[in-house]
Amino acid sequence: MTELRAVGIGKRFAGVRALDDVTLDFPGGAVTALMGENGAGKSTLIKIINGDYRPDGGQVVLDGAPLALHAPADARRAGIRVIPQEPEIVPHVSVAENVYIGALPRKAGRAFDRAGLRARVREDLRRLGFERVLDPDTLGSRLTPAQRQLVEILRALTTDAKVIAFDEPTSSLSENEVEALFALIRRLREQGLAVVYVSHRMQEIFRIADRIAVLRDGGLVGVRDVDRTDEAEIVRMMVGRDLSDMFAREHSATDEVVLEVDAVTTDDVRDVGLTVRAGEVVALAGLVGAGRSELAGAIVGDLPIRSGQVRVAGRPVRLRRPRDAVRAGMGYAPEERKAQALLMERSVRDNISLVVLDRLRRLRFVRRAEERRLTREYVDRLNVRTPDIEHEVRKLSGGNQQKVVLARWLARRPKVLILDEPTRGIDVGAKAEIYHLIDDLARAGVAILVISSELPEVLGLADRVVVMQNGRVTGELDRSQATEEAILELAMAEDLSTTVQEGSA
Amino acid sequence: SSGKESTSTNTSKKVSGKISIAYLQKQGDQQYFIDEAQGAQAKAKQLGDVDVKVVNLGNDTSKAVSETQAAIAQKTTGVIIVPPDPAVGPQIVQTVAAAKVALLSSDDQICKTGTDPSKCPKDQLVPRVGFSGTQMGTQVGQRAGEEFKKAGWKAADTAIIAAWKQDVTVCTDRVVAAQSAFEQAAGTKVRVVKVGTDNTPPDAQSKTSAAVSGNRSVKHWVVWGCNDENVSGAVNALQNAGYKAADIDGVGLGAYLACKDWGSGKQTGMKAALFINGYDVGGLAVQTMVDYLRGGKAMPQEAFAPTKMVDPTNWRQSGVKCT
Amino acid sequence: MTRTTTSREPVDAEPKEGVPRRILTAIGPQNISLVAALIVVVAIFTFLNSGYLTWSNVQVIGEAATVAGLLAVVQTVVIICGAMDISVGSQAGVASVISAMAFMSTGHDPFLGIAAAIGVGIVAGLLNGLVIVYGRVNPVIATLATLAAYKGVAQLISGGRAQGFVLGDDLFIFIARGRIAGLPVQVCILLVVALAIHLMLKYTDVGRNIYAIGGNDTAARLAGININKYLIAVYALAGIIAALAGIILTARTGSGQPTSGSEGLELQSITAAALGGAALKGGKGGVAGTLLAVLLLGALNNGLNVVGVNTFWQNVAQGALLVIAVIIQQRRTGERAVGLPT
Amino acid sequence: MTRTTTSREPVDAEPKEGVPRRILTAIGPQNISLVAALIVVVAIFTFLNSGYLTWSNVQVIGEAATVAGLLAVVQTVVIICGAMDISVGSQAGVASVISAMAFMSTGHDPFLGIAAAIGVGIVAGLLNGLVIVYGRVNPVIATLATLAAYKGVAQLISGGRAQGFVLGDDLFIFIARGRIAGLPVQVCILLVVALAIHLMLKYTDVGRNIYAIGGNDTAARLAGININKYLIAVYALAGIIAALAGIILTARTGSGQPTSGSEGLELQSITAAALGGAALKGGKGGVAGTLLAVLLLGALNNGLNVVGVNTFWQNVAQGALLVIAVIIQQRRTGERAVGLPT
Ligand SMILES: Nc1ncnc2c1ncn2[C@@H]1O[C@H](COP(=O)(O)OP(=O)(O)OP(=O)(O)O)[C@@H](O)[C@H]1O
Ligand SMILES: Nc1ncnc2c1ncn2[C@@H]1O[C@H](COP(=O)(O)OP(=O)(O)OP(=O)(O)O)[C@@H](O)[C@H]1O
Ligand SMILES: [Mg+2]
Ligand SMILES: [Mg+2]
Questions:
Q1: Per residue in B272-317, pLDDT tens?
Q2: Cβ-contact B83, B64 below 8 angstroms
Q3: Three-state DSSP state, A219
Q4: Ligand 1 close to Cβ of residue A398 (< 6 A)
Q5: Under a CB-based contact definition with an 8 Å cutoff, are residues A418 and A399 in contact?
Q6: Pick from A439, A453, B5, B132: CA 20 to 30 A from residue B313's CA?
Q7: Does the Cβ of A286 fall within 6 Å of ligand 1?
Q8: CB A349 within 8 A of CB A374
């Protein structure tokens, strides 16, 4: 049976030691979960296994033979497949080609078998139960984040692999897709593959993994069998201390309505109404493609509203572009940090101060000292792990990048804060910190609308839950009424008659 | 087809009715050629029932071929061409001959059977109207030599700036001719500093400035080039480098920029310029073509428009137009 | 270079699929407007001068557009990779000179002349690719540099003068003036090359990989595509096609031209590729669109001369018409006017 | 420096802040290699000809580089936005002609001449911006089109001829040959413009927003930046600076030049910006690097002429040196050689 071993792997980047002498095996026929805080080195380890980064020391050994990994092509040839943390999609070609990129089916000579490809992808989609969420002919540029992640997952199926590593595959997926993915992973495990699985979602790990390896500060803390450990121990291994009161939120809503969305209709959203009061946290729940991000985009003036109105503090806002929303006191952290929020090649400072420059300037000159002070303050508050505030954002780990996005909007202190998947890719410890932050903000009177696909998060945070499906609001649940079952029922209101979960058998 | 259809030479059959002429010019956005185009069109108007279409070929020999083909496709009766490079001559001659359209070259010479007109048997040259490059260069060099003698400079502390676009062969011809004429007139050899430019004043100016930096020991400068742009740019550079007008012996070619210096009444290193009148050449070319087409009058092997050396004292009388 | 693919372009509704719509999609909406623009241009010039829409003039348009067309087609491939080759014109110049000189020095053997030119084209193209990939020089800078360097090489080996004389040779005459089934040989060459490249791009895995590299090079790299090999090969291809263009140039003008005839071709080829729908960021574009754009620009150019518009107005008209054509094309997509268009 | 509360120390070489280190960071590693290249170039030419490193020749280099330098500086701003302005040269041509013609027709008032030129520059720049943002025309295509159109306009209003004569006027003479504290006036103009743009880019919120737009336009839009306004303003700025370059051209040559002197400036300005570290996909670059690149190219150009290298070799040498400079620069970053470099 296959076995992948990482032996004595070390890797440092200028100023940061990402991995330090990590020795770890990934046996075949088992799912090894890799856990650790943001920036612990999980993605770096996976990139090394994939031949994307070259380690400073150590070796990757497959079935007893050391591998010479100079490029991802080498890893691929050896039978290693990696689903990276950030989906990499080719924009102007179809989903089908995206899935089989680098391994397109051929006919005679080098002719490319377009029909064969489409048939194969359709079959893959059907097998996994994704045919309703993903069309093989859509162009890559038109996919939603969830769909992009599904494409990445489908790529795992294209080759005969011995090892498959998933780097946070579910961070923007909702229950349905997660189920299908798990069915797939179980099948892979039965076939004897070594599966590496990275996630910050604790429940998932305990459902799918056989072993849990924990990294901290680039070093291996330990490996546990799932049967012989529990969440508390893993968290302790990850952060070095106990975490309690994770979701303890107190009710702080007032009666003052700050955000009113009144019968808003856009191209994908129909007749949506909701309100958020000062000090209240409203969660917007739903499945992939329910139209939540679309609604958020419309509320902040980025997508055209065909009819309906948005009011902030009672005053109607004329939304022609996001600037109008920002001016009216709204803040919006979009779901895709890399594509929609971050200036990857600029510093942490530049990224955080972006929306407060108008407050920091004097005669249009930015007050640099004040800017640095403000940036440091938020870097400290959110515990962003960066060597210093002039560090380029692209060099941060995924979770820390997300914190930078949040810091940006917190620094602006808006009246309304719209957070689309705010904890996507964030570790348990940091998650708790962010929940505390959201709680603090609410207490300070900010009206908060959170879009989240993670049900525990929705339940833990929200004063009220608004559920959407297919571009419409299908129900609203008070905190006391909200349970996972109730939310899912509303989220799938129209689908209930049809069975969805073929793939999980 | 193989493209090798027999190409019988011009049959002169008289054309009655409307005559349409295509005037294909290289560098059609340069002042000299703009004048030439206007001269051609004015002459056509004067003759009546003649239509002249002017096309700018830039420096593109390939375009010369396609515009010739286009003119033929338009049933043009005569083609007058200023070839961007004489090497394209044979191709033009064969293209035109196949369609039995009359051909006249203007300014630069072309040969029917070879790429180099200077090595062409006399009877194989296409009839031409214009100025001889060698002759122009000779006149420039001669005048420069005379000025050199008059100033009484010594060859040892004098140098010549020759500024031209080095991949334009007709430019090279002029500059080479100027040098031998200068040596004749001056009776001595003077060192030549070759400055490669793109034939525009700013480029001539900066390139010359640099060349001067490399030759600070020189006390007096003689300047010539492919056209007025080069000479005027180079003279400007010398003046900016601190040389007095009296230490510069610049002889322009065209006179359309030199006249600006003279018009201002200031002292200038631009001592003289060969006035070549594009307007006259354009008119003469059209006249020659029409005479041939209408009256069957054979085109003369070479017809030269008059050139005149002008200087600050006599340029106005000579008909130099200054914008 | 990792490219962030913007997730949600502010685009309006997905077009509904119907049969007419299907046909439209097959030609591509981008190309439709080029066809429309072409029809308008032809209509206007035909109205102004009856000599415009004659078979002989159409041939002239085709022949005049061949050299630029070849370069535009291969430039399209380079641009799809997300790169650019600004040196194509200079490469054609070197090849032109070499073809004529090799022809002369081998006792008038046209095949040796052509082979030598193509060989030199491959070398020049490979050098571009190697400098870019292994020298890590930005493609624009690198090929701007080789634009100058190759031009210098052409001038040096030729002494700046046109070289040789090839119109005594049957093959060169055939290329210059021959017809195959009534079509000029040059145009046939262009069509064959375009078709071959079109097939490669659309119907082989090589072509699909090229789109992937240009669309998202990280994705391509992670998928195990040997990006470096592809990029170098594409530059070599550009060198070969540029050499072909140089050979045609030699045949057209009768001699090897170091610079005349090949200057300015870089901008023309990029213009045609971009007008034909290639995105300069890479990943998008096609031969059909480029050819249509070449045809449109050629028809425009020729028409302005046929009608006898003065050079200065031609510049204004060309610029204005180009902008108008693209504006119309873009208006049809109904994209929202925010930020830079692609 | 911020320390996170968690246990881990950021291991290893956080560069120790020392004084030399500080200076190094201030110049930037990219610029360091330009400085090194400059030193090498100067050393070589000084060795070959003692007239090279003289104050008068340094002034010559500065003056020769001014026009291209101005355009390169503003091109840097355009490129940082992720766009490009290929029409700068033509805009300078129009401005040059207009300045001379307005000067002549207002009875030799230099200020009116200059004002008219700048006014025309603004209009031309705004037109570019509007066509790009609201016409949704790709910046390269749009400015390629206006490159032709503005050139045609310059030729039309001037009839293709050099216009007027301004060297009878004190102000124009001052611009052409004056010195301020020993420095040529043209160079002073360039330095003032460069400094102003540098301050704007680095120290104002406007500049920061420009970097944001080029770095990630979706992020900039969602952060409430009015991208359209910025883009149009940047093109207008390009128009103004191009007009300034045109005025200097007029003063240098003594008359308004429709095309001669302004052709090829687009490529020069893009080359300098890119060599100076501006990324063509936007979001990166700076005035200091661009100025260094302008100086390097100017010193190279001048040196080749001082030493008296023939034009053909100059082309080869320029191309080769450009490539070598960038390769050295890139090697220092130690980036892995995969795919297209940025
Ligand atoms: N290209 C890079 N340049 C510099 N530093 C880097 C680079 N990539 C990663 N790092 C650093 O290496 C460390 C480990 O990062 P890595 O991405 O492996 O974390 P991770 O465990 O995957 O975190 P997350 O859960 O947030 O994804 C981080 O401190 C990060 O800043
Ligand atoms: N750029 C786009 N082009 C076309 N359709 C889009 C685009 N973006 C979103 N959509 C469509 O809009 C609908 C709503 O998507 P949205 O992203 O708002 O859903 P969501 O509830 O946020 O789910 P997700 O978890 O996928 O983000 C989906 O049907 C999706 O296909
Ligand atoms: Mg990670
Ligand atoms: Mg969403």
A1: 999 988 888 999 999 999 999 988 888 888 888 888 899 988 888 8
A2: yes
A3: strand
A4: yes
A5: no
A6: B132
A7: no
A8: no
DSSP line for B1-42: --S-------------S-EEEEEEEETTTSHHHHHHHHHHHH
Scanning the structure block, which residue is given the tokens 């909702």? A174
Query: Which residues are CB-contacts of A367 (< 8 A; sequence separation ≥ 6)?
Result: A360, A361
Chain C residues whose CB is inside 8 A of the A304 CB are 10, 12, 336
DSSP state of D135: T
A13 lines ligand 1 (CB under 6 A): yes
Rounded to whole angstroms, the Cα distance separating C140 from C132 reads 9
CA A485 / ligand 4 centre spacing (Å): 21
Positive or negative, the CA dihedral D27, D30, D32, D36 is: negative
Widest CA span of chain C, in angstroms?
A: 65
- Take atom 18 of ligand 1 and give the residue whose Cα is closest: A41
C-beta of A429 in contact with ligand 1 (< 6 A): no
pLDDT surpassing 70 at residue C333: no
Cross-chain residue pair A15–D10, CB shorter than 8 Å: yes
Q: Which DSSP string corresponds to A18-44?
A: EEEEEEEEEETTEEEEEEESTTSSHHH
Q: In what order do the strands lie in the sheet with A447-451?
A: A330-333, A416-420, A447-451, A281-285, A464-469, A472-478
C157 touches chain D (CB under 8 A): no
CA pair distance C76, B8, nearest whole angstrom: 43
Q: Compute how many other C-beta atoms are within 10 angstroms of the C-beta atom of residue B222.
A: 27
Q: Nearest 5°: phi and psi at A226?
A: -60, -40
Ligand at minimal distance from the CA of D10 is 1
Test mutation, A88, A149, A405, A424, chain C, max C CBs within 10 A? A88
Lookup: tokens for A422: 């705010």
pLDDT tens-place string over residues D270-286? 888 988 888 878 898 99
Crossing angle, helix C88-105 and helix C227-253, to 10 degrees?
A: 60
Is the reported ipTM for this assembly greater than 0.90? no
Pocket of ligand 1, candidates A19, A82, A396: which has the most ligand atoms within 8 Å of its Cβ, to mutate?
A396
Q: Which residues contact C132 (CB under 8 A, 6 or more apart)?
A: C83, C138, C139, C142, C143, C231, C235, D340, D341
Q: What is the pLDDT, as a whole number, of residue C19?
A: 60
pTM over 0.95: no
| Chain A residues in contact with C221 (beta carbon < 8 A) | 52, 71-72
Q: Which residue has the tokens 């207490």?
A: A443
Q: Is C32 exposed, middle or buried, given 0-12, 13-18 or 19+ CB atoms closer than 10 A? A: middle
CA A317, CA A310: separation in Å to the nearest integer? 6
End-to-end Cα spacing for chain C: 18
**Distance between Cα A394 and ligand 1 center (Å):** 9
How far apart (Å, rounded) are the C-alpha atoms in residues B115 and B90? Answer: 7
Residues A369 and D241 sit within 8 Å (Cβ to Cβ): no
Are the CB atoms for A72 and C224 separated by under 8 Å? yes
Ligand 2: which atom is nearest the Cα of residue A141? Answer: 1
Residue that has been written with the tokens 């294209």 in this structure: A158
D186: amino acid identity, one letter: Q
User: Nearest-CA residue of chain B relative to D263?
Assistant: B200
The residue in chain C having the minimum alpha-carbon distance to the alpha carbon of residue D321 is: C145
pLDDT tens-digit map of C258-280? 888 777 888 889 889 988 888 87
For residue C4, how far is the Cα from the chain centroid?
A: 28
Alpha carbon distance A426, A445 (integer Å): 25
Pull the structure tokens for residue B145: 């030599």
**Chain C residue with minimum CA distance to D297:** C145
